[in-house]
Amino acid sequence: NTGALWGGRFAGGPSPALAALSKSTHFDWRLAPYDLAGSTAHARVLHGAGLLTDGDLDRLLAGIESLAAKVASGEVVAAESDEDVHGALERLLIEEVGPEVGGRLRAGRSRNDQIATLFKVFLRDHARVVAGQVLDLVDALADQARKHLGDPMPGRTHLQHAQPVLLSHHLLAHAWPLLRDVSRLRDWDARVAVDSPYGAGALAGSSLGLDPEQVARELGFDGSSPNSIDGTAARDFVAELAFVLAMVGVDVSRQAEEVILWATKEFGFVELDDAYSTGSSIMPQKKNPDIAELARGKAGRVIGNLAGLLATLKALPLAYNRDLQEDKEPVFDSVDTLEVLLPAFTGMVATLRFQTERMASLAPQGFSLATDIAEWLVREGVPFREAHEVAGACVRRCEQLGVELDELTDAQFAEVSSHLTPGVRSVLTVEGSIASRSGRGGTAPDRVTEQLAEVRQAIAEH
Ligand code: ARG
């Protein structure tokens, strides 16, 4: 036996070209432990249906256990002649227990229901790993936010100076999307958990009296597929996870872009730790943000994996089609990419050194307190439309004089508008501006302290 799972109706073996095209062991071998767990559960339901004697069951379970140990240690691997992980493991199990018992296990199951089930279990495990790594990144952001609770920076829209904000507020703005990604992963898992396809067979279910609910429970699911066609044909679980992984990639990439900008001479906001930056082979002075650049680059890759998957799925008729073999590599790649990226990125974030004095000195520049003038006027009873005009006129005056807003004299303010009494100066400091934004979600120190506690709580709850 060469590991082929079919052949009875064929006169000869497949052409070498077909075998080369068809083969999937180079990427599906990583599902071997999951396939063996499925086999254990399947052997038990065969036994429950009276299709295996007690002795057969014992021999099969012992054989699967011994094979699992050899797979885990790397002592056995797929052979050149194996088409896929399922065929390879059947061949190896027969080597363990002989063809008489080993040949019974395939009854009532198909590679179609096997692969759909194993793929789910594998992805559920890795979604948990990624969720943990994303939470580590949120934790690093929260630690940095705590260290910089009182430090102001220029807040931007359109990359232009907009209004001063706290650095901690900005850092936590990156934490929330990541927390939503973690809850997306949890939601995805809950949806996958109710739908174990094992027992669907090739597409129509089994005639052998097997219990799909029992297999489902043994494999950690809450229930089995209500529709055997859907169970074997659906891949929305792959696409949905690929989306969430792509979203994580994008959320990390947006942070990465800021680290790259902030580490430039021109910004000078942040210094990277030596252990998390790279040098140049020719320019001795260089310290490059390669982790952030790789994060930005890899986001493109995980987006591509999602787009490719959706393209593979879009016109597939029910039920199983071999096209579906193309569903694995993209999402394996997304998982692998994030699992190697996230620890490096978290290390980089945790060790960033912020140049807080420079950030503070830039915070009021670019007339970023103009909104504070307008809102002060509103509190003095001036309609906002007029207040906006007056504050804009102050900016124009500053540009003529080449000064910042707080450098206008009382007389110059009064010339712009009689409403601009010296009291306006109370809001013309970064501190005053930040403290005044004290509604929920605002950048005032008390609000940010509360927000940090909310982030900590969300980390703890996940
Ligand atoms: N290797 C296939 C896959 O990844 C599973 C096998 C189903 N093959 C088949 N010819 N029915 O989707």
Automatic annotation (TrEMBL):
Tell me which EC number(s) this protein carries.
Answer: 4.3.2.1
Q: Does the keyword Amino-acid biosynthesis apply?
A: yes
- Gene3D superfamilies (alphabetical): Fumarase/aspartase (C-terminal domain), Fumarase/aspartase (Central domain), Fumarase/aspartase (N-terminal domain)
In the record, the note on similarity to other proteins reads: Belongs to the lyase 1 family. Argininosuccinate lyase subfamily.
Give residue ranges for domain Fumarate lyase N-terminal: 8-304
- The protein depicted here goes by the name Argininosuccinate lyase
Q: PROSITE patterns of this UniProt entry? A: FUMARATE_LYASES (PS00163)
Q: What metabolic or biological pathway is this protein involved in?
A: Amino-acid biosynthesis; L-arginine biosynthesis; L-arginine from L-ornithine and carbamoyl phosphate: step 3/3
User: What keywords are assigned to this protein?
Assistant: Amino-acid biosynthesis, Arginine biosynthesis, Cytoplasm, Lyase
What catalytic activity does the UniProt entry give for this protein? 2-(N(omega)-L-arginino)succinate = fumarate + L-arginine
Locate the Argininosuccinate lyase C-terminal domain: which residues? 367-435
Q: Name one GO molecular function term.
A: argininosuccinate lyase activity
Return the HAMAP family for the record: Arg_succ_lyase (MF_00006)
Its taxonomic path starts at: Bacteria, Bacillati, Actinomycetota, Actinomycetes, Propionibacteriales
Where located? Cytoplasm
